[in-house]
């Protein structure tokens, strides 16, 4: 399972948890402006916006899972198994392979408004990257500081939904995820008052009782509600440290611990990494299951006019700061 979220303080933040039972070999990868983006069915882009994100690099191609561009637009792909469906190549549309979707949007669009324009003529096609890396069944969150959308390519066509809550998990399709929030409209960060019966002397005996009923399990439907509640009620200072810290706490509400979600005998899905991008400033913060310390890569510390990918392997292993030795 995975969860993606947006957050706005002084700057705009965008990130996700990547939950899975193994890693493909992820690296924080910067695609500079002159890296030649080759696409399978449309012309190459020689000059484009610079991108930073988490990717598996294969044959010098950045297979992004989530990323932002230098204009402050963010995008993340999350599993949508059983619902995602991609088309065959068609005429008079932009035929973009599923693995090219993030590069296609982030290399050319400075905002969600511009992304919507490209989405009008896109056809997400079923061309696999390679035999070893077949199609991934995904849906996507695309956001800038003003708005957020969900994109789902299904057997009945491409759906582009306004995403007012700024979060995404996995199945079921987005409209059903949003609908279930109706079931939780009574939840509140405030203490409840007794509306059950005025004849009964009921007492709010513990803090946090306004959220009683918030689902605590790891299913994607439950994570959607939990992270939505956490995000919309989230309160933090505006500084970079306060915002980044709060963002990791928001996604911490849906963190997956090894042992709680068995995918088969002896194999468990865990939160492999959590990312938080400052999309305004082009900084990619992350921590991993094995390393809770926040590490960061700043795209503006690199030569963004270059034509070569820059990759940073993830820093693993807990970094513990002893206070008395
Ligand atoms: C496994 C990842 C999604 C994690 C997730 O959503 N887990 C939820 C599991 S569940 O539904 O709830 O069961 C997805 C997100 C991005 C995907 C990668 C990107 O799409 C980039 C390429 C695309 C290639 O087609 C396949 C390899 C790949 C490198 C993908 C591997 C894998 O499918 C990734 C890493």
UniProtKB/TrEMBL annotation:
Keywords: Hydrolase, Lipid metabolism. This is choloylglycine hydrolase. The lineage of its organism: Bacteria, Bacillati, Bacillota, Clostridia, Lachnospirales. It comes from the Bacteria. Coiled coil: none annotated. It catalyses: taurodeoxycholate + H2O = deoxycholate + taurine; cholate + taurine = taurocholate + H2O. The keyword Lipid metabolism applies. Belongs to the peptidase C59 family. Residues 2-312 form the Choloylglycine hydrolase/NAAA C-terminal domain. InterPro entries: CBAH (IPR047711), CBAH/NAAA_C (IPR029132), Ntn_hydrolases_N (IPR029055), Peptidase_C59 (IPR052193). Its EC number is 3.5.1.24. The keyword Cell inner membrane does not apply. NCBIfam families: bile_salt_hydro. SUPFAM superfamilies: N-terminal nucleophile aminohydrolases (Ntn hydrolases). One of its GO terms (molecular function) is choloylglycine hydrolase activity. Pathway: Lipid metabolism; bile acid biosynthesis. It comes from Blautia ammoniilytica.
């Amino acid at each position: 399972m995975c969860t993606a979220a947006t957050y706005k303080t002084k700057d705009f933040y965008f990130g996700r948890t990547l939950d899975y039972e193994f890693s493909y070999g992820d690296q924080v990868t910067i695609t500079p402006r002159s890296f030649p983006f080759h696409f399978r069915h449309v012309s190459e882009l020689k000059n484009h916006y610079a991108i930073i994100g988490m990717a598996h690099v294969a044959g010098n191609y950045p297979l992004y899972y989530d990323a932002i561009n230098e204009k402050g637009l963010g995008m993340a792909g999350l599993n949508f198994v059983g619902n995602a469906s991609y088309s065959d190549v068609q005429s008079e549309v932009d035929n973009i392979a599923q693995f090219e979707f993030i590069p296609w949007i982030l290399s050319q669009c400075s905002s969600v408004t511009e992304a919507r324009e490209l989405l009008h003529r896109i056809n997400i096609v079923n061309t696999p990257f390679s035999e070893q890396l077949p199609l991934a069944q995904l849906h996507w969150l695309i956001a800038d500081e003003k708005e957020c959308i969900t994109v789902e390519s299904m057997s009945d066509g491409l759906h582009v939904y306004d995403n007012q809550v700024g979060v995404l998990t996995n199945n079921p399709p987005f409209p059903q995820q949003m609908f279930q929030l109706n079931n939780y409209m009574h939840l509140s960060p405030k203490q409840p008052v007794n509306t059950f019966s005025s004849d009964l002397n009921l007492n709010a005996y513990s803090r946090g009782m306004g959220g009683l009923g918030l689902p605590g399990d790891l299913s994607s439907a439950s994570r959607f509600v939990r992270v939505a509640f956490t995000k919309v009620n989230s309160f933090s200072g505006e500084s970079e440290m306060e915002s980044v810290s709060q963002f990791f706490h928001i996604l911490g509400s849906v963190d997956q611990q090894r042992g709680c979600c068995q995918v088969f005998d002896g194999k468990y899905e865990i939160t492999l990494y959590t990312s938080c991008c400052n999309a305004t400033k082009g900084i990619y913060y992350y921590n991993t299951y094995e390393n809770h310390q926040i590490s960061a890569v700043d795209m503006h510390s690199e030569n963004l006019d270059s034509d070569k990918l820059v990759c940073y392997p993830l820093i693993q292993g807990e970094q513990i700061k002893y206070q008395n030795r």
